[in-house]
Every structure is written in C-alpha cells, then in structure tokens.
User: Fold this.
Amino acid sequence: MSIEGIKTGLDNGSLVNDAPVTRAKAPAQHGSTPQTPPAAAHTGDRLSLTSEATLLKDVEKRLAALPIVDAQKVARIRNEISQGTYTIDPQKVADKLLNFEKLITKSEK
Assistant:
C-alpha cells in the first residue's frame, strides 16, 4: 500500500519511506534579508545529573577501588567447607538481605 511515497509494510508492521527528503523553505518576504538567531541564544551546552546518577557514580568509584576477589577469605572458606566446619549465621544473612533491600528501594524514590 502506498500513500504519497510512504509504503507501509502491513505484513510486518514496519514503515518504509522511499520519498526523497527535502526541507521546507520559509516564504521569502519582499525586501527582507535572511535572519540569523542572535549570538546570545547559543550559550553552550549544559549537563545536570540526577541524584541517582550521582549516587551511581559514587558507588562505581568505590567498587573500582575494591579488590575483585579476597583470595585469603576464599581459601579460608574453602578450607572450612572441606573440613565440615563452615557455618552460616541465618540472622546475619537476613540482616544483610534487608539492608540491601532498603538500599535498593531508597535509591528508587
């Protein structure tokens, strides 16, 4: 189906435009010269970060400073597991999960 140079691919829902792109020109006024925007309108680019973006950047910096793996801790836990002496403190796990959940929900607000 073609409507003024626009073909619709109804079989897959996509739109294809084969028409050449042209810019519309403003009608010329008799005896006038083209106007350019004043230089004051171009004050430069500006960037502002949300508080979430700032928090994320801070977390990223702190994570980059941490070692990827604590080899001594891994060796200790591996040894405890192999000897059958490794214990899990369920209260500590629950507390850490709750703190993590609070951190996530706080950052979403």
User: Anything to note?
Assistant: The helical segments are 51-65, 71-83, 90-108.
